[in-house]
User: What shape does this take?
Amino acid sequence: MSDKKFTYKDSGVDIKAGEDLVNSIKDVVKETHNANVLSNIGGFGGLFSADFKGLKEPVLVSSVDGVGTKLIVAFKAGKYDTVGQDLVNHCVNDIAVCGAQPLFFLDYFSTGKLDQQIGYDVIKGFSIACKENGVALIGGETAEMPDIYKEGEFDLAGTVVGVVGRDQLITGQNIKKGDLLVGFKSSGLHTNGYSLARKVLFSRYDINDQPDELNQTIGDELLSVHKSYLQLITNLKDIKGVNGFSHITGGGIVGNTKRILPDGLKLSIDWNSWSRPNIFKLIQKTGQVPEEDMRATFNLGIGLITVCSETSVTEIKKISGELGEEMFVIGEVID
Assistant: This one.
């Protein structure tokens, strides 16, 4: 039996490093707070005063998600301030398409050995996106788990909670035959399809390579921040004839949009009605990826779809133009 005395730090967990990280992020986190936040970071639970005046039968809407293997691209690039933004925006979009206004966000950051600068950059990314979306970052968990992650690796998860009046919920129940599909541009791959994209692109290119097809490096292209559609959805959801929204994530355009269709209806997509960003063309060409797999894996340049009546398209176009959003009529709902 060994006479050596083992400490928690000897086992790979540095409590002081975690405390130092919490202290370093207090200011950036506090920038996301509003009058509804009743607690500072570091407590056992985040406290949020819920004021639902003006909402008839308020319904809480929540979503939890991660950013998948996009993290591996961040590891390769040594760039950590964008993946936190990806996570917040992804979660916000998922509840915004239901008609909800996000209230607060909680994060989970786990790693093998805590690097305070990396932790700070990730959480700063959370804070940037939370401020942009008007969401309070009210708590989270930072966990050191040696032997679970390789050196320099970490994982992220996040939860957003929002609210909507029951009479303002957007479920897709009013979608009908003849409704049009209006698509809005994505900012790249967003947070889905990275296992295939990495396998294809990194078999030929390094992270800092810039193929002729792209105007930036592979790394910068793949780390483009997942776009938030909250402002757009907020401005479109009350237009008469807007019957549903689809956030295009894993499963592609059809896989996600069919989730909001009433029984007996399906989608007819005109796949040539918009120009695919070059990153998708590069992936398909480099990996000889079948078209069926491209459609089922990636957003292909469309990050949000509005299902609407034909009579509402003019107003949608006007508002989206004012917000600087490009839109395309990409298909319709059929029997």
User: Anything to note?
Assistant: Residues 116-133 form the longest helix (18 residues). The chain has two domains: 15-168, 180-334. The domain at 15-168 is CATH 3.30.1330.10 (60s Ribosomal Protein L30; Chain: A;).
